[in-house]
């Protein structure tokens, strides 16, 4: 029998004594990536998920008649909201697609009512997800260690990275044959070069869900998308193969994802402070709370690229207090990610714009 969901209370989080120092070091590591890429490209890019593969305009429709435990925050009342979506990979430099990395999907939902998180401008709610169920680092200081390694290799040795990616894909495949999946290997270039439109995306970190605690997910349900699930993109000789394929596919696909919520039901089995632990769906099932629809369109339309890729920032701390990010990794994503966006806006002379009602 599935347990009742855990109610949110402030002491579900445990804040380490050195967390502020770690966050300051994260900002410094981001600066290395930001300054190096801005110098090399003559243009500032994101410190993580720098390369976009598609930018889309759509809508989120919140389901009606949800049970009380699911009718929370943004999902408390039915309705339809405009959305902006950005598909990406996770590196801080713009690499050829032969270097295969995890996919990301960020979504900004417009006109969301409710008290705002501290420092959150506008009226939008952001969701930031990847096509994996766990984060690659258990704690913010481990995340810092990974980031320092990435900072040292940012925009350097592309040929070496391409060869390493091929080797790591082989290592990943060997591990999978014995039932082992490694988020760390995927993040270093060993991820399969999958079709972004066929992937299921996960928040991997927990959030407040009104009176409860949850993780989020977007699962493709349109037949044209599920037909792509598990498929690989042929990147041979094409630096921007993923972008090209998504653009060709989205011209003929009316995309549709289920937006799903996974409620925490046991703080020991579904921990808040360790995002490397997958929440077992048998114990904490996902439940549909809405549908994201994106009509067929040009996913690399210049006007949308300017609006979404250049003038928009996505961050887990943009939104309402009812969806407050939880856990040390989420707390460590607040200041450094805003720091990164501010750098990009300043260097490019292009301020980002948070939508208002």
- SSE arrangement, N to C: HEEEEHHHEEEHHEEHHH
* Total helical segments: 9
By DSSP, the count of extended strands is 9
The low-confidence parts are 157-189
Q: Distance N terminus to C terminus?
A: 42 Å
Q: Provide the structure class.
A: alpha+beta
Shape: globular
Estimated share of beta-strand residues = 15-25%
Portion of residues within helices: 25-40%
- Computed CA radius of gyration, to the nearest angstrom: 19 Å
> What is the average of the pLDDT values?
89
* Major sheet description: 9 strands, antiparallel
What would you note in describing this structure?
The protein is α+β, with helices and mostly antiparallel strands and 357 residues long. Helices cover 29% and strands 19% of the residues. The chain is built from nine helices and nine strands. It has helices at residues 19-41, 140-153, 158-177, 183-187, 223-226, 241-250, 302-310, 328-332, 334-348, and strands spanning 52-62, 79-89, 103-109, 125-130, 201-202, 207-209, 212-220, 255-263, 286-294. Strands 1, 2, 3, 4, 5, 6, 7, 8 and 9 form a nine-stranded antiparallel sheet that branches. Strand 6 (207-209) and strand 7 (212-220) form a beta hairpin. The chain starts with 18 loop residues before the first helix and ends in a 9-residue tail after the last helix.
């Amino acid at each position: 029998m599935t347990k009742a969901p855990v109610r949110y209370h402030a002491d579900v989080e445990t804040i380490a004594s050195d967390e502020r120092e770690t966050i300051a070091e994260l900002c410094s590591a981001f600066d290395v990536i930001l300054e190096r890429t801005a110098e090399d490209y003559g243009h500032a890019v994101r410190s993580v998920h720098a390369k976009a593969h598609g930018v889309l305009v759509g809508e989120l429709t919140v389901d009606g008649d949800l049970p009380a435990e699911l009718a929370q925050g943004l999902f408390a009342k039915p309705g339809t909201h405009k959305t902006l979506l950005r598909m990406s990979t996770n590196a801080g430099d713009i690499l050829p697609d032969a270097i295969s990395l995890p996919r990301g999907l960020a979504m900004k939902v417009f006109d969301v009512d409710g008290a705002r998180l501290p420092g959150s401008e506008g009226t939008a709610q952001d969701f930031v997800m990847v096509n994996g169920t766990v984060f690659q680092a258990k704690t913010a200081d481990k995340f810092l260690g990974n980031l320092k390694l990435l900072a040292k290799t940012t925009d350097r040795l592309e040929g070496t990275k391409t060869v390493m990616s091929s080797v790591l894909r082989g290592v990943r495949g060997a591990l999978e044959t014995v039932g082992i999946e490694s988020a760390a290997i995927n993040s270093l270039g060993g991820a399969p070069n999958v079709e972004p439109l066929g992937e299921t995306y996960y928040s991997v970190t927990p959030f407040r869900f009104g009176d409860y605690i949850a993780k989020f997910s977007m699962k493709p349900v349109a037949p044209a998308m599920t037909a792509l699930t598990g498929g690989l993109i042929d990147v041979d000789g094409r630096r921007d193969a993923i972008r090209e394929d998504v653009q060709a596919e989205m011209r003929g696909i009316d995309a549709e994802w289920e937006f799903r919520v996974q409620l925490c039901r046991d703080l020991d089995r579904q921990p808040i402070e360790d995002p490397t632990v997958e929440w077992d769906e048998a114990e904490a099932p996902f439940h549909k709370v809405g549908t994201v629809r994106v009509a067929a369109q040009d996913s690399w339309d210049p006007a949308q690229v300017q609006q979404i890729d250049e003038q928009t920032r996505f961050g887990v701390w943009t939104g309402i207090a009812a969806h407050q990010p939880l856990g040390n990794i989420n707390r460590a994503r607040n200041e450094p990610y805003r720091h990164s966006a501010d750098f990009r806006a300043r260097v490019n002379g292009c301020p980002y714009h948070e939508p208002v009602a």
